């Protein structure tokens, strides 16, 4: 199993497993979060071998970065890879802003909230409509030269926007939606990334918890639940996903004395097209369990079985 991964053309090196932290302090996005639990979740992840923390200004409008700053205060900063993102502009009702001056200010603000003097990976979280993407990335290159950030990322960019952003070859890493049940990025982005030595980090690796196997096939979601109206949680598609988890993933998990979530995460870790997988966690227990994926090595046949089980799902 891969033990370390180099990020793009930068000198950042990470382990293959990170922690997604939109539920660490992201009160504006999710209900019923507790800040102390968030801090404990980050510590549990670091205590169990997770090395990358993936955060963003948008997660709690700075709160997630603040909590991470508190959580890592007693850890060796150099053993941790901090990835953060910005673009949503509080002065533009949180619409994306990629202007160089704005991004530069956001990096300084993030450094202060995180209580650190460098950010390992800084992503432009979303593209805006008007800033030339090579100018936005050019500003990040200057921050890299100044030592404030170590690697340059973009997130939620189309292939065309990515090509424009990477005009001078400065992009090190891309973060985009990708998981076993939605592999579009494999066709749209990955060929360009591989050609240009750019790393890839998929978000929603657990399909927002669905791929942990914790939902029953006969589960009914109420109209006011967050799952309501989400295609993955409805009808024939939901039935096919839960069946694949029961029929294919569970026996493999049992064989490895692992959980379904650990097996699913191990499936990403073995894939050389994926740099770091960053499952989110709401609690220290989830983060600890997910870290156990580092101990699961799937056989070639198991990887194939899992890949096939989630292909051709009903729309
Ligand atoms: N760049 C972007 O635009 C973007 C967009 C989205 C996300 N992200 C990043 O990607 C990360 C991953 O995405 P995500 O967190 O939204 O989705 P995810 O990783 O697919 O799912 C995470 C959720 O699954 C549940 N879960 C995790 N481990 C579990 C376990 N062992 N047992 C049971 N349930 C478990 C938790 O939610 P519950 O307990 O509530 O079920 C957790 O919050 C985020 O945290 C964020 O850092 C980036």
From TrEMBL:
Pfam families: Aldo_ket_red. SUPFAM superfamilies: NAD(P)-linked oxidoreductase (SSF51430). Gene3D superfamilies: NADP-dependent oxidoreductase domain. Residues 16-309 form the NADP-dependent oxidoreductase domain. GO terms for molecular function: oxidoreductase activity. One of its GO terms (cellular component) is cytosol. Keywords: Oxidoreductase. PANTHER family: NAD(P)-LINKED OXIDOREDUCTASE SUPERFAMILY PROTEIN, NADH-SPECIFIC METHYLGLYOXAL REDUCTASE-RELATED. This is Aldo keto reductase.
């Amino acid at each position: 199993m891969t033990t370390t991964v180099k990020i793009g053309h930068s000198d950042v090196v990470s382990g293959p497993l990170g922690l997604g932290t939109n539920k660490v302090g992201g009160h504006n996005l999710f209900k019923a979060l507790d800040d102390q639990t968030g801090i404990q979740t980050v510590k549990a992840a670091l205590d169990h071998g997770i090395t990358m923390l993936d955060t963003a200004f948008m997660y709690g409008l700075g709160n997630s970065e603040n909590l991470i700053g508190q959580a890592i205060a007693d850890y060796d900063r150099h053993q941790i890879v901090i990835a953060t993102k910005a673009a949503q502009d509080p002065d533009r009702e949180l619409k994306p802003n990629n202007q160089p001056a704005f991004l530069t200010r956001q990096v300084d603000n993030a450094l202060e909230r995180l209580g650190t003097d460098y950010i390992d990976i800084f992503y432009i979280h979303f593209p805006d409509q008007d800033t030339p993407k090579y100018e936005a990335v050019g500003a990040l290159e200057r921050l890299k030269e100044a030592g404030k950030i170590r690697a340059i990322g973009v997130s939620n960019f189309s292939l065309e926007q990515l090509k424009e952003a990477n005009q001078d070859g400065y992009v090190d890493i891309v973060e985009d939606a990708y998981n076993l049940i939605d592999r579009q990025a494999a066709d749209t982005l990955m060929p360009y990334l591989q050609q240009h030595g750019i790393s890839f980090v998929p978000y929603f690796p657990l399909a927002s918890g669905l791929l942990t196997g914790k939902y029953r096939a006969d589960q009914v979601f109420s109209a006011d639940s967050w799952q309501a109206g989400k295609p993955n949680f409805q009808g024939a598609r939901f039935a096919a996903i839960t069946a694949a988890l029961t029929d294919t993933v569970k026996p493999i998990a049992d064989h490895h004395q692992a959980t379904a979530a650990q097996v699913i995460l191990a499936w990403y870790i073995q894939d050389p097209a994926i740099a770091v997988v960053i499952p989110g966690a709401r609690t220290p227990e989830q983060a600890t369990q997910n870290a156990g994926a580092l101990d699961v090595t799937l056989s070639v046949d198991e990887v194939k079985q899992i890949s096939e089980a989630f292909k051709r799902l009903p729309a």
